[in-house]
Specification:
The complex is a heterodimer of chains A (251) and B (430). By secondary structure, chain A is an alpha/beta fold. Chain A is 40% helix and 28% strand. In chain A, the strands form three sheets. Chain A has a six-stranded mixed beta sheet with strand order 6-9-10-3-11-12, sandwiched between helices. Chain A has a four-stranded antiparallel beta sheet with strand order 2-1-4-5. Chain A has a two-stranded antiparallel sheet with strand order 7-8. The chains are: A alpha/beta (251), B alpha/beta (430).
Chain lengths: 251, 430
């Protein structure tokens, strides 16, 4: 599904290297988690994969089902099936949530040469999916993320994911700012999609989210590299002992 | 009074000499003579005028006709075409009886200015030139005075109750050198309700005044789309006086035109009245758009709102001069003013002069003015969801204008305005 090889990334504005050779392969239907201390490059990885400005790839490749992601515009990556659930979802005053969702879905369908969805079918589909995420009609009507609480913003990200049905989802600290109930809702949303053979890369600081979304593989990232890879037990080790032991071990 | 500089006197006389002084009955001739005398005392504006600091009045003042190529809009759906309305059509500033609807409407009497001259006594004598005169202090607006003196056509509307449907002024532009001066006078009786729609480029050069007397508990709604012939020039004035618990709402969409100056002068003279003036302007290239607003609070508990948004690119210029004057005794005034521009490139500019002058001690007045580029974070967010760059830019642009466009209360009219904006954005791609 997603394959990253030897990825090196600099910040464009300053002479600073953030990623120093990341190798990662996420298979269809699998959940990979990335954990790591602050500043290890986790969010940078998610931004580079989704095509945000401000980063320069100096070496390496990233492909989605064999297609070169790094050559594509952000909207092309989305249409190809990549989705980033933002750590800080952006507020967009003046654009209604429904208009946004429908424009996004139809843009992707169009880019893939598939027929656009009718307004009626779309409305029904979104209402059903919103209901399972406990997103009410008012939130759908309001401008994108404006006046949403932290938890509402994160649930709105998962709603977008459910509506757009991407092949490969990156969740960037989706658990931050969520209470236990909200986290369960988010996890249910993720698990429903996972069963359909989609790939997940879950970036998190805590074991908590991984109680609900059971990862197949856990990676530890430090100083721009993946320094250790293991099973779910690795996340528990971090939870109990912190990163110090692991980092000392690989240093 | 200080004598006018010779150059200014000459320019004013030259402009007057190029126009024909209209014939009319006693009441309107009296108003015109008065305006002519006032105009000669103040002279037409020139570039040294403080009030014209950001917009050069030369081409609006000059005696020579200015040229404007015609813009072909055939094949486009008619604006407000789905609205049941009474149409009054002008071609290059001349009433077109053939193309207009019959001027009878429940709740209102409608007359051509050119016809209303028959009787010596007319209700319009208390409006025509009267509100314009009141609007000359503290700032002179000579182009409006020129209009009162020289307007040959226009419409007089007396609304006595709830007017059964909107009245739509349609201004066609067919001559590349037309120089049109129109003057409308509108009076709303107590409790009356009237909607005026306006659309079209009107003329190569257009000078229009609309005076609106709004009595107690009356409601006046105005939605205007200024035609987009690229080279047309327009100076327009709205003068309104508001009675107790009355409401005034005006929205203007401007796309293109080489020069537009829209002045709006409102006096809140009855307690608990409200006045909303809003504008959305989109332009590129030689586009110069100026909104000049002056709202005077002279009664208690009145509310006023000014919302002006401009999208500028390829070296376009936007101007906003907006003032809220709160007179002594106008307690509990609630005044709001916002002017913002979205600059789509580094060549465009926005010049804003917001002013508050307050002589009452128990008021809320806020104002703000900003200029900015498109929000990059928002743009990336939309693109990351699959929305192509241009479409995402359009969405954010429409969103930027929303606060102004939302001032149009009627959903159908608002949808028409939004679709025009989308059309403008789409035509400018590539």
């Amino acid at each position: 599904m997603l394959e990253i090889k030897n990825l090196h990334v600099d910040l464009e504005e300053e002479e600073k290297t953030i990623l120093k050779g990341v190798d990662l392969k996420v298979e269809a239907g699998k959940v990979h988690a990335i954990m790591g201390p602050n500043g290890s490059g986790k969010s940078t990885l998610s931004y580079v994969l989704s095509g945000k400005d401000g980063y320069e790839v100096t070496d390496g490749t990233a492909t989605l089902e064999g297609a070169d992601l790094l050559e594509m515009e952000p909207e092309e990556r989305a249409a190809a099936g990549l989705f980033l659930a933002f750590q800080y979802p952006v507020e967009i005053p003046g654009v209604g949530n429904m208009t946004f969702l429908r424009t996004a879905l139809n843009s992707q369908l169009k880019a893939r040469g598939e027929p656009e969805m009718s307004a009626t079918d779309f409305l029904k589909m979104v209402r059903d999916k919103a209901k399972t995420l406990k997103i009410d009609a008012d939130m759908l009507k309001r401008p994108v993320n404006v006046g949403f609480s932290g938890g509402e913003k994160k649930r709105n990200e998962i709603l977008q994911m459910a509506v757009l049905e991407p092949k490969m989802c990156i969740l960037d600290e989706t658990d931050s700012g969520l209470d236990v109930d909200a986290m369960k809702l988010v996890a249910e949303g993720v698990n429903a999609l996972r069963d359909q053979g989609r790939g997940f890369l879950v970036i998190t600081h805590y074991q908590r989210l991984l109680d609900h979304i059971k990862p197949d593989v856990v990676h530890i990232m430090a100083e721009g590299r993946i320094v250790k890879t293991g099973g779910p037990e690795l996340a528990l080790e971090v939870e109990n002992n912190g990163y110090a032991d692991i980092l000392a071990e690989v240093a | 009074m200080m004598a006018l500089p010779q150059a200014r006197q000459d320019a004013t006389e030259a402009r007057l000499a190029a126009l024909t002084y209209p014939e009319g009955a006693a009441w309107v001739t009296a108003a015109r003579n008065d305006a002519l005398a006032r105009l000669r005392a103040m002279g037409l504006p020139d570039r040294r005028d403080e009030y014209w600091k950001y917009t050069r009045p030369d081409t609006l003042v000059t005696a020579e006709p200015t040229e404007a190529a015609l813009y072909d809009t055939s094949g486009e759906p008619e604006l407000f075409g789905n609205v049941d309305r009474l149409k009054i059509v002008f071609v290059d500033g001349v009433f077109d009886e053939e193309a207009s609807d019959n001027l009878t409407l429940e709740g209102a009497s409608i007359e051509r200015l050119a016809d209303a001259g028959k009787a010596d006594i007319h209700w319009a004598k208390d409006v025509y030139g009267v509100l314009e005169t009141r609007g000359q202090t503290p700032v002179e607006r000579p182009l409006a005075t020129l209009n009162t003196a020289m307007a040959t056509d226009g419409v007089l509307i007396h609304a006595t109750g709830k007017v059964s449907k909107p009245i739509h002024f349609i201004y066609h532009h067919k001559s590349t050198t037309s120089d049109a001066i129109l003057h409308h006078a509108i009076k709303l009786d107590e409790g009356a309700d009237l909607t005026i729609l306006e659309s079209g480029p009107a003329a190569a050069r257009f000078n229009k005044v609309m005076e609106v007397e709004v009595a107690d508990n009356a409601g006046f709604h105005h939605v205007r789309k200024q035609g987009r012939d690229h080279e047309r020039r327009a100076v327009t004035h709205i003068f309104a006086r508001l009675g107790q618990e009355s409401a005034f709402k005006s929205f203007t969409l401007t796309s293109n035109g080489v020069l537009t100056r829209n002045e709006c002068v409102i006096e809140l003279t009855g307690d608990d009245a409200s006045a909303h003036v809003a504008g959305a302007a989109v332009g590129d290239g030689g586009f110069h758009h100026d909104d000049t607003v002056f709202i005077t609070h002279d009664a208690e508990r009145c509310e006023s709102r000014q919302v002006f948004k401009k999208v500028l690119r390829n070296g376009a210029t936007g101007v906003f001069q907006g003032k809220i004057l709160v007179k002594e005794g106008a307690q509990k005034t609630d005044g709001y003013q916002i002017s913002q521009s979205l600059l789509l490139d580094g060549d465009s500019q926005f010049l804003a002069k917001p002013e508050l002058e307050i002589y009452a001690d128990d008021v809320i007045c806020s104002h703000g003015s900003t200029s900015g580029a498109i929000d990059e974070e928002g743009l990336f967010y939309l693109r990351a969801r699959g929305i192509p760059h241009e479409k995402a830019t359009d969405l954010l642009t429409i969103a930027f204008l929303a606060e102004a466009v939302d001032e149009v209360e009627d959903e159908g009219l608002r949808a028409d305005i939004v679709s025009r904006l989308q059309g403008w954005l789409e035509r400018r791609r590539g």
